[in-house]
Design a protein that fits this description.
It contains twelve helices and eight strands. The chain is an alpha/beta fold. An eight-stranded mixed sheet has the order 1-2-4-3-5-6-7-8, sandwiched between helices. Strand 5, helix 4 and strand 6 form a beta-alpha-beta unit.
């Protein structure tokens, strides 16, 4: 009996420790990124926002730079393998955490892809970089598209990895206000994040993906989580209200579109009926359809892969990436 009580007490203590460790600040201060993080101040609406970024120099530079834009539920931390592979080939790699995401400040501002694009252009100007190959994943694909349309002379090639926004969500996802989305974001838990990631991001779950859930869910235990949730609601609205799918034909640089064939990502999916979910978010259809809209586009497809090829089929993705730079 004593042993049982002792074991129970030890288990309880370990759970308390695990809970404390899983709690993260809303700027992910506790999360170690794969390379050193720096900060760049940007201004809007009378506010100064600290924008986090990694600027990784290769051992043997080839004189070229690749810039990586993360997705909505992520930050620069999940690009480690891609940065390493690019660096080995001589590329300088710049990886910002967009304002409102990752280690960057969670500012209560009007978020727009145009504004975020300007922030990233200002960062490149500060670093003295005139030309980049731009890779955007998920929401980062929408931002990379907007950046390329705004600054075509800066982008030598646009690479899109399972970008969202290949269809106009306003035409089939019911509208919710920022306040309604905020209330939804406040309900975030480790379990809800893992359920979503399991169903939407990977064809088969692996313990290797658990760290993504811990980082995404960790701020929910922070005292400042309401601010984090409000920013999440604001950026959801940005995605919903600012489609880029009507402008693919205006892109003037070469594009490579990387698509996981099993991807079924839809912003606002929880608001849809099962029938609507089947009609939309089908990347095996959206990928080729989008490629046809872009004047100079190459489509690269990955079998047995959902939303994050650079993690789920890392070897295949890196091979394809390096061949198409």
């Amino acid at each position: 009996m004593k042993r049982r009580i002792l074991l129970t007490a030890m288990l309880f203590i370990s759970l308390l420790k695990a809970s404390a460790q899983d709690s993260l600040s809303i700027t992910l201060n506790e999360v170690k990124y794969p390379y050193p993080v720096k900060f760049f101040p940007v201004k809007t609406g009378g506010q100064t926002i600290q924008m986090a970024y990694m600027d990784v120099m290769p051992a043997n530079p080839n004189g070229k730079t690749v810039m990586l834009f993360h997705g909505k539920n992520f930050g620069g931390y999940y690009w480690g393998g891609v940065i390493k592979a690019l660096g080995a080939k001589g590329y300088r790699v710049v990886v910002p955490d967009q304002a409102g995401f990752g280690k960057s400040d969670k500012a209560l501002i009007h978020y727009s892809f145009n504004l975020l694009a300007r922030f990233n252009k200002a960062l490149l100007d500060r670093l003295g970089i005139a030309k980049v190959t731009l890779l955007g994943h998920s929401m980062g694909g929408m931002l990379a598209t907007r950046f390329t349309l705004m600054y075509p002379d800066v982008v030598s090639k646009l690479l899109l990895e399972d970008p969202i926004g290949l269809e106009d969500y306003r035409t089939f996802v019911p509208y919710v206000t920022i306040d309604e989305e905020y209330q939804t974001e406040l309900k975030t838990t480790y379990e809800s994040v893992k359920k979503y990631y399991t169903e939407s991001y990977f064809t088969k779950w692996s313990p290797d993906y658990d760290y993504l859930v811990k980082i995404a869910a960790g701020p929910a235990k922070s005292a400042n989580f309401p601010r984090y949730a409000k920013v999440a609601a604001l950026t959801y609205t940005m995605i919903y209200e600012q489609p880029v799918c009507y402008e693919f034909g205006a892109i003037k640089v070469p594009v490579v579109l990387f698509i996981g064939q099993e991807d079924n990502t839809i912003i606002g999916k929880a608001l849809l009926s099962p029938e609507e979910k089947m009609k939309h978010g089908q990347y095996k259809i959206l990928g080729p359809a989008t490629a046809r809209k872009i004047p100079d586009c190459k489509l690269v497809e990955f079998d047995n892969c959902k939303h994050i090829p650079h993690i789920e089929v890392a070897g295949q993705f890196l091979d394809a990436l390096l061949k198409n730079l």
